[in-house]
Amino acid sequence: MIKGSCLCGNVTYEISGEVGDIVHCHCVTCRKAHGAAFSSVASVPLANFRLSGAGELSQFESSPGKVRHFCANCGTQIYAKRGGAQHIILRLGSLDDDISSKEINHIWTSQKASWYEINSQLPEHLEFD
């Protein structure tokens, strides 16, 4: 079982099973939502994700059909979900436990922060392929 939570602890979750490959997203909305150069995310099947404290979550549709869910108290980004998808996009900064997932790429590098230099051997994609 993999566990995670928000900064204040009002929202917690458990994941049964594996967490998908890690993607680093440099799009403007991820940068602004996280207040950072990029957001590290991975896919988790809905059936494997159990959330506690859902009443503490707020949400924001950051782009058409994509809703970000975050703690209304402390602001921690927990996950995003596209309408009809059978998985969530887990915000890896909210994990409490280690995962064995591997980094696979950087996406939306066309919107990368000008002050950040990517220093990895991972593939870079100008948009989301």
Can you put this structure into words, describing what you see?
The chain has 129 residues and is mainly β. The chain has one domain: Metal Binding Protein, Guanine Nucleotide Exchange Factor, Chain A (Beta Complex). The chain is built from 1 helix and 10 strands. The strands form 2 sheets. A 7-stranded mixed β-sheet has the order 6-7-8-9-4-3-10. The longest helix is centred in the first third of the chain and has 7 residues, at 28-34. The mean pLDDT is 93.
- Give average pLDDT, whole number: 93
Rg (C-alpha, Å): 14 Å
The CATH top-level class label? Mainly Beta
Individual helix count:
1
User: What's the domain count?
Assistant: 1
N/C terminus separation: 30 Å
Shape: globular
Extract low-pLDDT stretches: none
- Tell me the strand percentage band: 35-45%
Count of DSSP E strands?
A: 10
Per CATH, the architecture is Beta Complex
Strand order of the largest sheet: 6-7-8-9-4-3-10
CATH-defined fold name: Metal Binding Protein, Guanine Nucleotide Exchange Factor, Chain A
Sketch the topology as an H/E string, one letter per element.
EEEHEEEEEEE
- What fraction, in percent, of the residue positions are helical? under 10%
* Structural class by SSE content: mainly beta
Biggest sheet record? 7 strands, mixed
Write a concise keyword list for the protein shown above.
single chain, 129 residues, Metal Binding Protein, Guanine Nucleotide Exchange Factor, Chain A, seven-stranded mixed sheet, three-stranded antiparallel sheet, 40% strand
Write a short abstract of this structure:
The chain has about 130 residues and is mainly beta.
